[in-house]
Design goal:
Helices cover 49% and strands 18% of the residues. The protein has 373 residues and is of the alpha/beta class. It has a seven-stranded mixed beta sheet, sandwiched between helices. A four-stranded parallel beta sheet has the order 2-1-3-4, sandwiched between helices.
């Protein structure tokens, strides 16, 4: 699974955005060292209810799959049970979707018992409505003459077991969340800063530079799944830097529900540091995605927010123009800048520049002075 892959997506009008989504899938597959042999992108008003793409387009994909011995076909949107069944019958290989791939990555990345419980809960919630398909897929894997289907009784038994498992996992999470709540209360007199941002924007690298730690970093998505609290001192004042899980467009709803502890950390922090990779493509889309989630889902309108444009040493010219147009900020390579408006503070940094990090700390300190007034 995830060895020889093809990626499939559809687009209504914005083809470039759909290409970016497929590029994200490609980057996600690098975690499993999977190879993408080809991407298929069809223009459609909406997904086909039976086969996601058109039947004729699926025939074209089927020919490619057979010819190149592809073992996994990944769709850029979440598939229904009927779509999975129909596509698998046609392509005769393993069918996955964005949700399934992200869940598998989270299972692979989860290290602590807390993260494992959260991922397990999300996986069971994803599995429950697809149980019948999982049974039939298992039958095909086993093969053999005279093998009978599981029957409705066995499927219903499994459904009851999964429902009970979901209940038990939720109880475990609630117990751990209560413990985290107590720990959070003990931090009341300390200034807390939550780092939020799209996945792989360099949050952990920033923490390492500010705190002088050596936390594990990797140029891959979802390196951090657990909420990590790190401390640093500036002018005899103690600060807590809280690293939270990275955002990703089209992230499964079940995962958001499971990782509520990270979300609560953001809501309870004194300052939100919204980290943006200034060198990436579709920078504005990613900024708006995270911002809309923060404001609409978490209701943090009254929070102090610092927008941190990271990796200024790698900025591309097209992003300079985009940022100037949308934020009113003129950016010059390797030059430290701070801009302020009524709602937010913008800062441009390079983690390779010690002066940038020092000035960043000073900015955080100055913002906290206003909070304490």
């Amino acid at each position: 699974m995830y060895n020889k892959n093809i990626l499939i997506g559809i687009f209504k009008t914005n083809k470039n955005q759909s290409i970016e989504y497929l590029n994200e899938l490609n980057n996600l597959l690098k975690i499993f060292k999977g190879i993408v042999y080809k991407t298929f992108l069809q223009r459609r008003f909406k997904p086909n209810n039976l086969t996601f793409v058109g039947k004729g387009y699926l025939d074209k994909i089927s020919i490619y799959v057979k010819k190149n011995l592809i073992d996994t076909v990944i769709f850029d949107d979440e598939l229904s049970l009927s779509q999975i069944n129909n596509i698998e019958k046609k392509l005769k290989c393993f069918i996955s979707d964005r949700t399934k791939l992200i869940l598998d990555i989270f299972s692979y990345r989860a290290k602590t018992s807390y993260a494992k419980i959260q991922v397990k809960l999300a996986k069971y919630q994803y599995l429950l409505p697809r149980l019948k398909h999982m049974w039939s897929h298992l039958e095909r894997q086993k093969g053999g003459i005279g093998l009978r289907g599981p029957g409705e009784k066995e499927i219903e038994t499994d459904r009851r077991l999964i429902r009970q498992t979901i209940i038990n996992l939720k109880k475990k999470l609630k117990k751990i969340n209560n413990q985290i709540f107590i720990q959070r209360k003990n931090r009341k007199n300390k200034i807390s800063l939550s780092l939020v941002g799209y996945t792989n924007v360099g949050k952990t690298t920033i923490i390492n530079k500010i705190t002088k730690q050596k936390l594990f970093t990797e140029n891959k998505y979802f390196t951090t799944l657990d909420t990590n609290v790190n401390k640093f001192y500036f002018k005899n004042k103690k600060f807590l830097l809280i690293d939270t899980i990275g955002f990703l467009r089209k992230i499964p709803t079940k995962l958001i529900e499971s990782f509520k502890s990270s979300i609560i950390e953001i809501q309870n922090s004194d300052i939100i540091l919204h980290i943006i990779d200034i060198s990436t493509t579709f920078i504005l889309d990613k900024f708006l995605y995270v911002t809309n989630f923060l404001f609409n889902e978490l209701n943090v309108y009254n929070k102090n927010i610092i927008i941190v444009f990271n990796k200024i040493d790698k900025i591309k010219n097209f992003n300079k123009l985009l940022i100037k147009k949308n934020f009113g900020i003129k950016i010059f390579k390797n030059k430290y800048l701070i801009y302020k408006n009524k709602k937010m503070i913008y800062i441009c940094i390079s983690t390779k520049n010690r002066k940038d990090i020092l000035k960043f700390k000073r900015l955080i300190y100055n913002v906290t002075l206003k909070i304490n007034k």
